[in-house]
Specification:
With 117 residues, the chain is mostly helical. Helices cover 83% and strands 0% of the residues. 22% of the residues are buried. InterPro entries: Spore_V_AE, SpoVA.
């Protein structure tokens, strides 16, 4: 049942993103930015954690909304400990490994594969 819920929720988030591309004719940048902001807002309202409890990997691993959730979650945790400085550094502390991995794997991909002209 966990697989079904993860597939359903993750797929629904992907369908929303694809609909933004196809129906509303948004660019990839607008779509990604919108989904990150939605994830951040859901975390701020306390609604993303129940979604994670329900869908597990469908809400944490695949969708871009999880990145917005991580930014706000990290900022809120560190703000409780260190105040305003924690608010600014918390989001980088939580998301730094994912961002670093994206940069490293993107560079490796750029070195291995030849772009089309």
């Amino acid at each position: 049942m966990d697989f079904f819920r993860a597939f359903t929720v993750g797929g629904l988030i992907c369908v929303i993103g694809q609909t933004m591309f196809d129906v509303f004719k948004l660019t990839p940048g607008h779509t990604l930015r919108t989904l990150v902001v939605v994830g951040a807002i859901l975390n701020g309202l306390g609604l993303y954690e129940p979604l994670i409890d329900f869908a597990r990997a469908g809400a944490t691993i695949i969708p871009i909304t999880s990145f917005g959730n991580s930014l706000v979650h990290g900022a809120m945790q560190e703000a409780e400990k260190h105040g305003l400085v924690g608010l600014l550094t918390g989001m980088f502390e939580v998301t730094s490994s994912g961002i670093s991995a994206a940069i490293v794997f993107g560079m490796i991909g750029a070195l291995i594969f030849k772009p089309k002209e």
